[in-house]
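Blackboard transcription, Thursday session:
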Amino acid sequence: MDIKTIAIIGSGTMGTGIAQVAATQGYSTILFDINDTALKKAKLNIEIALENLAQKQKITTEQKDTALSRIRYTSEFSEIEGELIIEAIVENLSAKQELFSTLEERLPATTIFCSNTSSIPITQIASACKYPERVIGMHFFNPAPVMKLVEVIAGEASDKKLVEIVKKVAQNMQKVPILVKDYPGFIVNRVARHFYGESLKILSEQVAEMEQIDELLEATGFKMGAFKLMDLIGVDVNFAVTVSLFNAFYQDARFRPNLIQQKKVEAKFWGRKTGKGFYTYPDSK
Ligand SMILES: NC(=O)c1ccc[n+]([C@@H]2O[C@H](COP(=O)([O-])OP(=O)(O)OC[C@H]3O[C@@H](n4cnc5c(N)ncnc54)[C@H](O)[C@@H]3O)[C@@H](O)[C@H]2O)c1
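(Written on the board underneath:)
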């Protein structure tokens, strides 16, 4: 099956990065969002990112221009098309189910539906679809243009041939696809919950300040401390993932969300994307 056009739904942190990768690697790319402001921000961020790569001579000016010309930005639902769809919308089961079940009504029967969910089992998302065999997990990591790993997840009903196609697409995007089982949080996010959770616990028990915790984690070799990483991911998204895993594991105390994080979410201190999270970002666009 030849994948030429990829439609990415949701132009936030992840959708923006995935669209940049898809277009740079030769796919005709459609980036859809219900929010025009998010689309404008995505367009600007992709332009800046590709310009930076061109200035560092990692890509040529011609490659930059070609990649930019491959992306179509839209908020018109009827303009979503492509052999492969990647959703990167809000981390919410019913929102993802509604999106896929609406799209499968009007897209050809061969369309592959990929979810970039961090935590929701693919089998659950697919259960609302008429064609659950076409739903596959394709979990990129943040920042998508930089991180090599893509967790590829086959749900109970997923067609194995389509899983292979998704792996191939990830490879074409210069990523390293790893097939993982369909369990809440898959592998990386399940393990990572404890990185964030324990750091938040240390903070709430006043054992250390967040700057100190980040500094220590970075000094031991982590690329980013837990608080800096939550700000990069989006405190809201990270919290939603924790709540999702907590519930998926029958409220196992190991995954219990932290009230410090919940308060940040309620205050809209969502990290870099809102200019303030655990840290402040005066230059955020
Ligand atoms: N942020 C991360 O580090 C990260 C990493 C891997 C996976 N993910 C997953 O990717 C998904 C998106 O996360 P994000 O951080 O990019 O979120 P985000 O909040 O930055 O962006 C989500 C975007 O989706 C749009 N949206 C919401 N509902 C929509 C709908 N029904 N149709 C179209 N657009 C819609 C919003 O307007 C927003 O622009 C989530 O499932 C998340 O768990 C996030």
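Lecturer's comment: The two ends are 39 Å apart (CA to CA).
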